[in-house]
Every structure is written in structure tokens, then in C-alpha cells.
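re: ur question from yesterday

yeah so i grabbed the chain u mentioned. its 184 aa long if i counted rite. heres the sequnce exactly as i have it in my notes:
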Amino acid sequence: MFAASMILVIAVAGAAAFVLWKVSQELPDYEVLAKYEPPVMTRIHANDGRLIAEYARQRRIYVPITAVPKRVTEAFISAEDKNFYQHGGLDIQGILRAVVTNMSAVQSGGRMVGASTITQQVAKNFLLTNDQNIERKLKEAILAIRIERAFTKEQILELYLNEIYLGAGAMAWPPRRRPIGTRR
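ran it thru and got these C-alpha cells back, copy pasting raw so excuse formatting
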């Protein structure tokens, strides 16, 4: 009985290792994040420094993490990944909590919850698609661990805050400004 159990455990572990190895062979290069340059807007100023116009497909200004108010970063961490500074890319407790919550939600018809960390969201938003399948989640998890090893928490947070979409044309930071001469 013990030998059969051990063989089963070894077979399952081997299968899991093979799946992880296979998925990791198809991963995009996460090191491109170090060279990330978002599409920013062109601003035209008058001689006296007044802003005349802004041109861009997206109204985006890349803001270094040091320029983002502490309250803004704390608010996003609180809402999206309260254990951001404690985990290495994956929040195992959060994943287990989400699995339990989602199992009961499926039975009762309740709302499903997610367990992606900020680092996983960076991996998905920059390097992967929005497909909702196990393979993409595995890739996201592997990339998150690699990103955590290659970048500081501040660099990860800076990428996240400069890339997330808040809806209705709004980006995370800074607040949207209208060009001179436009009406509200």
C-alpha cells in the first residue's frame, strides 16, 4: 500500500513537473519590462510655458513611483494585493482562499473572486493575453515568480500603476487634464 502510494505521488509530481516545464518553454521574455516605454502624449507649449495642446491615442503620462503619492500606492495595494510586500509573486494564502470561496460560490450561485497578485497582473497585462484558461494562469504564475526575482517591488508597482486601465478613458495616474480651450 505504501509503495503504491509513493509510486502514485511520484507519478503525479512527475506529470506536474512536465506540465510546468512544457508551459515554461513557451513564455515571453519578461526582461522586456526593463525597457518598457509606454505610448505617451505629445504636448505643445507656448513660449511662456502655457500648455497649448496635447496629442496622443492614449492620454498617458509615465510617472515614476517616487512621484505617485503614498496614499495612492497604499490604496491600490490595499484593494488589489494586501500582501504585496510579503510574497514572491504568488500569494498562496490568497489562492487557497479564492479556491474555497469560489467552490462555495459555484454551489450557491454567488460571485467568484480572483487571487492574482499585482505582479501576476503585470505579467498578464504586459506579456500575456486575457484568455481565461489554466495554461495562461500557469504562465502568469511562472512569469510572476521570475519578475519578482528580476525587479524590485517599487519597479513592479511603477509598471502596474502606469499601465492599468480604470475605465471611461481614465488611466491610473495622474488625473486627466483637458487641453486649453476645451469645454467641460
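noticed a couple things. Residues 172-184 have pLDDT under 50 and may be disordered. also The CA atoms of residues 42 and 55 lie 5 Å apart.
anyway ttyl
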